[in-house]
Amino acid sequence: MNNHSPPGLRPEESGRVIPPVGPRALGLALAVVAAICAVLWWAEPRTSAPGSPGRDRIEPLLAQVDVVPERVPVPGYERDCSGDSACVFGPAWTDTTGAPGSGNGCSTRHDVLARDLLGATADPASRCTVIGGLLVDPYTGRVVDVGGTGLRGIHVDHVFPLSAAWDLGAWNWSAERRAAFANDVDRNLLAVTGSVNSRKSDWTPENWFPPDPGRHCFYAARYLTAAVAYGLPVTAGDHDVLELAVRRCPPGG
């Protein structure tokens, strides 16, 4: 028996019934397409931004970091220090911690700005207060003239977010260790544009990577450096995307 429609005859004219696509089937099809697109996007060769660390430096960190199945929220996280708030990571940008560079008389925020702004200029009335310079956003490559735009739009980002650190083990640290982590200029802080920092929020690599793919290697290196230095684990999902980012780092040597 020939089940094919004659040439030029529409399926409904042949007597065959074409069933509608159900919501579950459609959702599954869309999910498969999205997964294929994601694989192709991650597999596409990309050039890391100049100055990105080599794989030979980052792969040992990837091998050393502990991995947990998922991030489990732990009650008690309060960053705010006003009123009766817990202030679990200490006052913002305090200069009195055991972090690198602490105790120099300048706030941590201005320490980061002085380091990260090209041609950073200080307020004549204060050796610490930065009032000018150029920021090359480490996540996008966007150049911002702070002298023209002001500092309000420049944030200092915790590469390894404080709330994620709390959930992944910092809840069990001493107050002193948490304050040092929150103010560690060398390992966990970067000056970035406020808009990008707001989008990043407290997401970890599984859910957020820099918009510029060329900066994925740099970000992975900074995230892993903070994690290993403080004994923080990464989730299995984080580890998977960090591993892919590290594969794109320059070989090193």
What does this structure look like?
It is a single chain. With 253 residues, the chain is of the alpha+beta class. The protein has ten helices and seven strands. The strands form three sheets. A three-stranded antiparallel sheet has the order 2-3-4. Strands 1-7 form a two-stranded parallel sheet. A two-stranded antiparallel sheet has the order 5-6. A hairpin with a 7-residue loop joins strand 2 and strand 3. Helix 2 crosses helix 9, helix 2 packs antiparallel against helix 10 and helix 9 packs across helix 10. The radius of gyration is 24 Å and the shape is globular. 32% of the residues are buried. The N terminus is likely disordered.
Write the layout of secondary structure elements.
Elements: H1 23-43, H2 55-64, E1 67-68, H3 108-116, E2 118-122, E3 130-136, E4 143-145, H4 146-149, E5 154-158, H5 162-167, H6 175-182, H7 185-188, E6 189-193, H8 194-200, H9 216-229, E7 234-235, H10 236-247
Parallel strand pairs: 1-7
Antiparallel strand pairs: 2-3, 3-4, 5-6
